[in-house]
Amino acid sequence: PPGAKQTSSSIVPSAAAPQLPLMTAATLELELGSVEETELLGAQLAEVVERGDVIFLSGELGAGKTSLSRGFLRRFFADPELEVPSPSYLICLSYADDGPDGSPAGATADDAGGAKAAVSGRTLRPRGRARLPGVRVLHLDPYRLPEGRVAGLVDLQSAFETSVCLVEWPQRLGPQLCTPHSPQRVEVRLGGIGPQAAGRAATVTAVGPRWAPMLAEWVAAGRVTVELPPLPPPALPSGDGEGGNGESGDGAGGGGGEAGGGQAAARVVPPVPEGAGRREMLVLGIESSCDDTGAAVVRGDGTVLAEAIASQVGVHEEWGGVVPKLAQQSHRAAIDGTVAEALRRAAVSPADLSAVAVTVGPGLALCLDVGVRKALSLCREHRIPLVRVHHMEAHALVTWLPSCHAHHAPRPHPPSASVPQAPPPPPLLSGLLPPFPFLTLLVSGGHNMLVLSRAVGDHTVLGSTLDDSIGEAFDKTARLLGIEAIPGGPPLERLAASGDPRAYALPRPLSRTRDEALRSNCDFSYAGLKSAVRMLLEPQQPPKKQRKQQRKQQQGQGQQQQPQPQQQQP
């Protein structure tokens, strides 16, 4: 950004902090041009925190809160390779090493013999030593909980005194845990969303005397004046559980435990193999984002060895759409059997798997939770990596499956000066169709977007729907026509195949708008087309009240026609 000095592309020891511009005198406003700069800000905060410090991280979904936390935790525990997942599904992740005397992290002289503070969720063990020996870091995200409910899972009053706390979505803590004056804290608000946490505007403010002098110094300098000295060498793994980069706890978001000093060292996850070895990898994929429970076993070259799906069509048809709570209950009932069936069809045991991939969003939170918990349990049991999959990116890259190559021949496109050409892909990715960069039209039940893909994890949404997605428009139109099937698109398409496309004049979306920006951009709109269909049908349909009565009568007749169970004679 203008006025900002060049920063390192990764969190490495540097002689000076990045020069980021000062925008206001009351707060410090920074421009973070990349995910590396976001992580670097977290690392700088980690260099100055003390026991009992609290950092609030605010911003919309995808604003970079977890990226900042990753930089903080890697620096605080001197572990540049530390895996830092989002705590969204487990509410609280606890990071701790062992104190210099072998006592669990977080124990103090006031803890009566080393009693640990009450925490919840999973405890992760970084390979490095904490900058503050024996101090635990809690990474919390109460987004999925009602306001104030996190107090029933985590002893925050104790944590605010004995640990370092990174809190995403702090507004969910509730007024009893968070007031304008307590706890003393530094607040970082991240603005903007997009791929790779790039292009963020960060606003840093302070509450209380602990952080106010330091923030005043940063504001006066126009940047965060924290230098990062070289990290100490990483600790070598040993047989007593130290430095094993392991984890403990039940992973269920409530009542988790902590590994003791005598726990056996966790198995070090092997690196991803190269060349032919990677093709022999076996990955279990789990999908539970909406109304179907899916599992598949995929080989490293993309070949789908087997899959299994548990449909919920019969569950939601009588409601005219997907009911999240019912969908969650169905996922819970089907997830174990679906995964077991996919493994059985592939003739693969869980111990043979190289990794487990699971959809983490976007989707229905209640449903995503079921798949994520199943994936976490398998990874924890068999000590294999967890791959978090973005639902929309998976749709965009599905054309890389070998089964798609058999039906679609490559169609090379000429280079364009406006679109930067991607670097040559690794050998395993050569021959994948289409090659980067490419343009994708993503069409699904809940999404409708035009995406420019430059690399894995590097995507730009050029246009999206302004109202309904095309899938929603299909389903709602089907219901207007009396089609009760879920989804309504397939039967509607079959009816349209035998219809007359010139029978009715329906508007073309956005073609009559006077807004030149809407006419020239890449956005979609289907609400007007759906409304036009409704207005076309209303004169030909009985009143809404009469339709409800007819539906009730049909349901009553269906119940009367059901055979009554025969009573056995004594």
Tell me about this structure.
With 570 residues, the chain is of the alpha/beta class. It is 27% helix and 17% strand. It has 15 helices and 17 strands. The strands form 3 sheets. It has a 9-stranded mixed beta sheet with strand order 1-8-7-2-6-5-3-4-9, sandwiched between helices. Strands 12-11-10-13-14 form a 5-stranded mixed beta sheet. Strands 15-16-17 form a 3-stranded antiparallel beta sheet. β11 and β12 (304-311) form a beta hairpin. The radius of gyration is 27 Å and the shape is globular. The termini are far apart. 33% of the residues are buried. The model is unreliable at 1-25, 100-120, 235-271, 407-413, 415-420, 425-429 and 562-570 (pLDDT under 50).
Name the features:
alpha/beta; five-stranded mixed sheet; 17 strands; 27% helix; globular; disordered N terminus
